[in-house]
Amino acid sequence: MKGQKIRLAKAHKQNTRVPVWVIVKTNRKVVSHPRRRHWRRRSLDVK
């Protein structure tokens, strides 16, 4: 159970937007996060 909670927390941390400083530094070439996950649309494969 504890390992599953850790993996869920990791997935939660990874699911953030691209930082503003990255957008500024790349002159808006990088604005989207291709691996961004929405809780209703895509399920996690957490064991």
Automatic annotation (TrEMBL):
One of its GO terms (cellular component) is ribonucleoprotein complex. The keyword Lipid biosynthesis does not apply. GO terms for molecular function: structural constituent of ribosome. GO terms for biological process: translation. Keywords: Ribonucleoprotein, Ribosomal protein. PROSITE patterns: RIBOSOMAL_L39E (PS00051). HAMAP family: Ribosomal_eL39. Belongs to the eukaryotic ribosomal protein eL39 family. This is Large ribosomal subunit protein eL39. It comes from Methanosarcina vacuolata Z-761.
